[in-house]
Amino acid sequence: MKNKFITAQEAAALIHDGDFVMVGGFLGHGTPNSIVEAMCDSELKDLTIAVNDTGFPEGVDKFGFRGVSELVARHKIKTLYASHIGLNPETGKQMSEGTLEVKLIPQGTLAERIRAGGYGLGGILTPTGVGTDVAQGKQVINVDGKDYLLETALKGDVCIIKGSVVDKLGNVYFKGTTRNFCTVMAMACKTVIVEAEQVVEVGEIPAENIMTPFVLVDYIVDGGKTNG
User: Fold this and answer.
1) Are 157 and 20 in contact (CB under 8 A)?
2) C-alpha span between 26 and 24 (Å, rounded)
């Protein structure tokens, strides 16, 4: 059995300048914080990041969720795909200054573009944004008398996600809403790194609870205490 375990620093070293990195999490909930922190401490630059939001400007909210706010603050990101940036003024500041390219995408559209990338589709058709600024420069396709926007698929170089329980083979269980974008991102990237909140032996996660199978996971960062 291949040993997939690496440190957060080794995970960050697998990411290169200019890479397209997909980051799991929702307002920091379910974000692989150890890996993000290692990325912040590295010399990485000019990243393209796909994430639901850019977290909170202080780096940690009252619940202890960080998100990718520090990556923004340290100017590690060149291009950002996100659904919400309103809770982090630094993101808006960099966007206004022209130092950060922000592509705001409706949340459902973002998820489906990533899903399309993972499933080998060219894109999706959605009515969201038709007749608005969102439609600028995009192809409009009429189906049965209704207009849809063609939103192209998103595929990344590296995906970093956080699993609630991960076995030593790399099978992942996400508790509650920590699942968010993680399962579709794991399908859409060449390299998948999961930060485990808890590591267990193979077989301890019931098969029906496996949400991301081991065949998709390349590396595991033990972010908690390994059992056994």
Assistant:
1) yes
2) 7
Q: How far is Cα 165 from Cα 160, in angstroms, rounded to an integer?
A: 15
The mean of the pLDDT values for the chain is: 93
Q: Beta strand pairing status for 165-167 and 172-173? A: antiparallel
The Cα–Cα gap between 8 and 195 comes to 8
Query: Quick one: residue 25, left, alpha or beta (phi over 0 = left, psi -120 to 50 = alpha)?
Result: left
User: How many Cβ atoms sit within 10 Å of the Cβ of residue 169?
Assistant: 17
Nearest to 57 by CA among 31, 21, 86, 84: 86
Residue 27 to residue 46: CA distance in whole angstroms: 23
The answer to whether the CB of 193 falls within 8 A of the CB of 167 is no
Q: Which of 47-61, 72-86, 203-217 has the lowest mean pLDDT?
A: 47-61
The answer as to CATH 3.40.309.10 being correct for domain 5-120+153-222 is no
Sheet arrangement for strand 140-143? 123-126, 146-152, 140-143
Bridge partners, residue 79, by sequence: 48, 101
- At residue 152, the 3 state secondary structure works out as strand
Q: What are the φ/ψ torsions at residue 205 (nearest 5 degrees)? A: -95, 120
Is there a contact between 195 and 35 (Cβ–Cβ < 8 Å)? Answer: yes
Q: What is the pLDDT of residues 165-183, one digit of tens each?
A: 999 999 999 999 999 999 9
CA 179 to chain centre: 11
Q: pLDDT band at 60, cuts 50/70/90? A: low
Q: Which two tokens stand for residue 116?
A: 């399309």
221: helix, strand or coil: strand
